Amino acid sequence: MAMQRIDKLLASQGFGSRKEVGALLRAGRVTVDGTAVRSGETKADAERQTVAVDGKVICYKEFIYLMMNKPAGVISASNDPKAETVVDLVPPALRRRGIFPAGRLDKDTTGLLILTDDGDFAHRMLSPKKGVDKLYEAVLDGPVGQAEAEAFRRGIVFADGTVCLPAGLCVLREGENPLVQVRIREGKFHQVKKMFRAVGRTVLALRRVQIGALKLDPALQEGECRELTEEEKKFVFEVQKAD
Q1: Does the active-site annotation cover 106?
Q2: Active-site residue (options: 45, 88, 106, 217)
Q3: What is the DSSP string of 119-136?
Q4: Is 223 left (phi over 0), alpha (psi -120 to 50) or beta?
Q5: Residue 241: which pLDDT band, with cuts at 50, 70 and 90?
Q6: Are 210 and 69 in contact (CB under 8 A)?
Q7: What are 27-59's pLDDT values in tens digits?
Q8: What is the mean pLDDT of the chain?
Q9: pTM for this one?
Q10: Contact at 8 Å (CB) between 74 and 88?
């Protein structure tokens, strides 16, 4: 990596704002190759030099990628003065300046959400042209069958004329309130709910379980998150065959 100001470097790694990092520097708590650094203007290369805070060497990462099991009741946003956001749920050790949810899940929708500070990664994941499927499980207020599946396959058209890309629909569990699986390649506002509304059904519960070939980690409790592995980041862009 190129040399960069030490205050900018530390702020990017979650050590606080520039002002907070400045306080660390002035207190002599930051070292580069064992020498205390007190000026934020000092430049360092964290990949070639040893940068430490309070004696603990930092492991520099240009970007961070988190998998979250989003709970109901929180909004998919970076900040909001009136409501709890998914970024509020990220523990301090994983929180970075500029982190945001890559795509949105409705406030009452649960499941797989990726948070990152890598805008290019998020764009590639969300662009319909990239062909990254998103897999959801939904509980409905009534049964669906071949007619509804065919309507999804053709591409649902909303009342306002909005045309959805072809999508997959299959029933996982029959009954008065069936559990179904929906596969889409885009993320219009309230899309899955509106698609079912277009065929006369209401979604009672909705959960995203997969993006590309990346599946939600069953060990993650709702509200928890962890870093993606390098392999899992690649899974996001793998084409997953429909079940």
Answers
A1: yes
A2: 106
A3: HHHHHHHH-GGGT--EEE
A4: left
A5: low
A6: no
A7: 999 999 999 999 999 999 988 999 999 999 988
A8: 93
A9: 0.85
A10: yes
